[in-house]
Design a protein that fits this description.
Elements: H1 4-25, H2 34-65, H3 70-76, H4 78-85, H5 93-123, H6 128-139, H7 144-153, H8 164-184, E1 191-194, E2 204-207
Helix pairs in contact: 1-8, 2-5, 2-8, 3-5, 5-8, 6-7, 6-8
């Protein structure tokens, strides 16, 4: 017999699967498949987190420009540095700082690439309701109900209010359009779904990070 936590997980997975199927039903692109929708939804859910990483890295660079030494930077990020190597970084602070910085810079550029492509897809939506819905949900990271209520009340003079049902439909079309854009520019190639042993049937989604030479 399942406990409450297991029941919540099952319900969440079922709702996610149902949502994906509804999105596929409004798909009018012949080459967009279910995996593309899953990858796109996952990427959109990570957008705000990636923006945080970008901002934090830019702040760190600014601190270096302002005179913070490599040792001070590592001290400020000791926990991160330790996780990278599995041990305390004490032997060669300067060398380790360079290694850490190189990897961080690669991640930074990669996240910039991903987030720029997401913004491009959203900014190029022709339907004003879809564009606003995408901005509220994915760029601003608002909860579904908050975004739906905002658009229902029609706070923007150039975007008339819409019903909850219409908002749900617009959101699905938004995801399809973004999926098409991200597949066309091959952004989705960097998103993987692992169906290996021990995974749930929906698979485990993640990013295939670029290699650091």
């Amino acid at each position: 017999m399942m406990n409450d936590n297991q029941m919540c997980i099952v319900n969440s997975l079922e709702e996610e699967s149902s949502d994906t199927q509804k999105i596929i039903q409004v798909n009018f692109f012949s080459d967009i498949e279910q995996e593309d929708i899953l990858k796109t939804k996952w990427l959109l859910s990570k957008y705000v987190d990636m923006i945080d990483v970008i901002k934090n890295y830019e702040f760190a660079l600014q601190q270096i420009e302002n005179g913070m030494s490599a040792y001070e930077l590592l001290s400020a990020e000791g926990a991160i540095a330790k996780r990278e190597s599995g041990r305390e970084l004490t032997a060669d602070v300067t060398a380790n700082a360079v290694i850490l910085k190189d990897k961080r810079h690669t991640n930074y550029k990669f996240y910039q690439f991903i987030t720029n492509n997401i913004r491009f897809a959203i900014n190029n939506m022709r339907d004003p309701h879809e564009g606003l819905a995408a901005k509220l949900l994915f760029i601003d990271g608002k909860k579904y109900l908050m975004a739906q209520q905002y658009m229902e009340k029609g706070y923007r003079k150039d975007v008339p209010g819409i019903s909850a049902t219409t908002f749900a439909d617009k959101r699905r079309r938004v995801i399809v359009n973004i999926a098409n854009s991200l597949k066309t520019n091959r952004t989705l190639d960097f998103v993987t779904i692992d169906y290996g042993r021990g995974r749930n049937k929906e698979g485990e989604i993640g990013l295939r990070m670029p290699e650091v030479n």
